[in-house]
Amino acid sequence: MAPFLIFILISFLTFLVFQLCQRLRFRLPPGPCPWPIIGNLYDIKPVKFQCFSEWSQTYGPIMSVWYGSSLNVIVCNAELAKEVLKEKDQQLADRPRDRLSAKFSRDGKDLIWADYGPHYVKVRKVCTLELFSHKRLESLRPIREDEVTAMIESIFRDITSPGKLGEGVVVKNYVSAVALNNITRLVLGKRFVNSEGVMEKQGVEFKAIVANGLRLGASLTMAEHIPWLRWMFPLEKEAMAKHSTRRDQLTKAIMEEHTLARQRTGEKQHFVDALLTLQDKYDLSDDTIIGLLWDMIIAGMDTTVISVEWAMAELIKNPRVQEKVQEELDRVIGSKRVMNEMDFPNLPYLKCVVKEAFRLHPPTPMMLPHKATAHVKVGGYDIPKGSIVQVNVWAIAHDPAVWKDPLEFRPERFIEEEIDLKGHDFRLLPFGAGRRVCPGAQLGINLVQLMLGHLLHHFHWAPPKGVKAEEIDMSGNPGVITFMRTPLEAVPTPRLPPHLYKRVAVDM
Ligand code: HEM
Fold first, then answer.
1. Superkingdom of the source (predicted)?
2. How far is the CA of 389 from the centre of ligand 1 (A)?
């Protein structure tokens, strides 16, 4: 027992000395008083973006929050966001990695977890010029349209089956299927689920890998923030190694299939084909290709589902807005055909609805964390090298200083004022801004607009029987991404002729 107590005492004193040094050397932003060893970890409420937004009322728009011994600087207003993401962007563009992200990204050999440097610049260029070019996104458009029509067919089939008329459906179940099929087709050229809804062998393995990754992520403890305590909380090393091997084996098998298919049939547009074709030109290792493919899957799947689910909840709570979008869809598209992406320029109100949903419910409310590569000043305070910097985009999007009636779901605000969504206006940052802005933003917006447009053109949506619109639970789940705490249930009523509820399948 005695050695343990001595260890705790030494740790305690070390922490106090470290804190004192930091405070004497630097003028750190204000914040809640940290406890020894754990810092503010026990004070942070599970839904962090709301907790930090509340704290900013006391400590101001830039705060120091200690996660164990690591300093997190949280900024909560548009001016400071601009300083972090534009003016001081270059010194704040690294990523902090916990042991899991370090392991799975092979210490940042991918894009998401890469530090800002030559490797990052190279893979970012591959993403911008090759993967997310207008030409490629356009060539993959039929996949998105196919999947969205498949969703409509499946909702229609389920609600018109005997005894089901007037019953509620869980919106997320249908939207998640689109997001899954869409991303695996786009990235890996695979639709793991066949038209009967049966998942093939590789798909079962894919889903198991995704679920296992989430489980391993959830197993991380507070020790991630207190490096010298990590020895007490060893990682599930064997499970992690097994997970990495499974992921690599499946991805490599798919890469090989694609190489053979290209030899037979020539050029293909999926991300896996693009990366393999460009492997020599950009000198990409296999680890980087695998890392990039999984980055796109992880970053591009749930974010779109979350956006659509929240938007649908707002539209059910605000029937005036729902009717107004439907009036626009009826006027522009009518009831003789279904919507497609070519209709976007003629659907300005739908676009405003999407923007308003991204404003009130950014899927990644604190973006992803950035790390300082040098000592830098923000808002007049010191940010020491190695500190983590987070922008609370949720707080900014709810700030009454920059938004009139911020809590109101009122898409018209975007008709009254043109506000950019992709990182040029620091009041609205669902995709971040600057060097690390989301490379998949346009793809994400297209998919969300397409899903919402279809859901609203084909169906009228109401709360389930016995539930009033104002009773819908609008609270969010804790986590880096924010699903609705209670999955949205709603009753869809068809509004178009039955022959328009058929999937328009494409083979690509
Ligand atoms: C509604 C949809 C989406 C939202 C709200 C969203 C939001 C974000 C945000 C906030 C970041 C972090 C920016 C930063 O650190 O400063 C990010 C990064 C990223 N996103 Fe998205 N995203 C979406 C869809 C997608 C899609 C569809 C893809 C790809 C298929 C994608 C791929 C990525 C990647 C690879 C990064 C890391 C970029 C980097 O570190 O340089 N995202 N996204």
1. Eukaryota
2. 17
Q: Which atom of ligand 1 is nearest to the CA of 113?
A: 40
Mean pLDDT of 98-123: 94
* Backbone Cα Rg of the chain: 24
| Side chain identity, residue 274 | A
Q: Is 199 helix (H, G, I), strand (E, B) or coil?
A: strand
Mean pLDDT of the region 472-495: 95
Give residue for tokens 């299939």.
257
Alpha-carbon gap, residue 43 to 41, rounded angstroms: 6
- Rounded Cα–Cα distance for residues 4 and 186 (Å): 53
Exposure string (b/e) for 244-262, b if CB count within 10 Å is 16 or more?
Answer: bebbeebbeebbeebeeee
Beta bridge mates, 271 = none
Residues flanking ligand 1, CB < 6 Å: 111-112, 124, 295-296, 299-300, 303-304, 307, 363-364, 367-368, 430-432, 436-440, 443-444, 448
Is the Cβ–Cβ distance between 187 and 179 less than 8 Å?
Answer: no
Tell which residue, 84, 163, 61, has the closest CA to residue 396: 61
CA distance linking residue 76 with residue 79, whole number of Å: 9
d(CA 415, CA 401): 19
- Phi and psi based region of residue 30 (left: phi greater than 0; alpha: psi -120 to 50; beta: remaining): beta
pTM higher than 0.85, yes or no?
yes
* Atom 31, ligand 1: residue with shortest CA distance: 440
Q: Counting atoms of ligand 1 from 1, which one is nearest the CA of 435?
A: 41
Residue nearest to atom 18 of ligand 1 (CA): 438
What is the sign of the dihedral through the CA atoms of 219, 222, 223 and 229?
A: negative
Nearest to 224 by CA among 237, 213, 235: 235
